[in-house]
Write a structure and sequence with these properties.
The protein is of the alpha/beta class. It contains five helices and eight strands. The strands form two sheets. A five-stranded mixed β-sheet has the order 4-2-3-5-8. Strands 1-7-6 form a three-stranded antiparallel β-sheet.
Length: 158
């Protein structure tokens, strides 16, 4: 899948979002923020986890570290049963490559947890489906579209 698929999803779901092309690949939060001319706290990441082999998408500020223990506690599971999905699982379940994954429009319906810190910004930028594309959107719009849960899943102070 790519940014064209994401654009079709945005149109079909009436999402208030825009795909922005960047001149270069933005492999880090800092590079993405610099390319877009925004603060690093406005960049969010979409991370796919496996909880008892069921996919769970975590959307969090790009500079924050996802706390797998907090995720496990929220899901009612022991920490050892929650792990990061590998690149193949991400591609198979979401349809997007690691590093370009948007917060929605995936191949598979994913349960989504959105870290509460993401809501500190009125506008954020997420993966846009390709390495040179970013998605501009409000955190509340992500929540509306994914039907996710607003929770605290990042480490304190991160």
């Amino acid at each position: 899948m790519n940014s064209s698929d994401l654009a079709a999803f945005i149109a079909a779901n009436g999402a208030a979002a825009e795909i922005i092309r960047t001149a270069d690949h933005t492999p880090t939060v800092e590079a993405a923020a610099q390319a877009l001319g925004v603060h690093v706290d406005q960049i969010v990441k979409s991370i796919l986890l496996l909880a008892d082999d069921s996919p769970v998408l975590v959307i969090a500020n790009g500079t924050a570290r996802v706390d797998l223990k907090r995720v496990a506690d929220h899901l009612g599971l022991p920490r050892k049963r929650v792990k990061m999905a590998d690149a193949n699982a991400v591609l198979n379940l979401a349809g997007y490559a690691v590093g370009s994954m948007p917060p929605f429009g995936h191949k598979t319906q994913l349960r989504a947890l959105i870290d509460s810190r993401a809501f500190e910004q009125s506008e954020v930028f997420a993966g846009g489906g390709e390495i040179n594309a970013m998605l501009r959107i409000a955190p509340d719009e992500i929540l509306r579209i994914v039907g996710g849960e607003k929770v605290e899943v990042t480490q304190n102070g991160s």
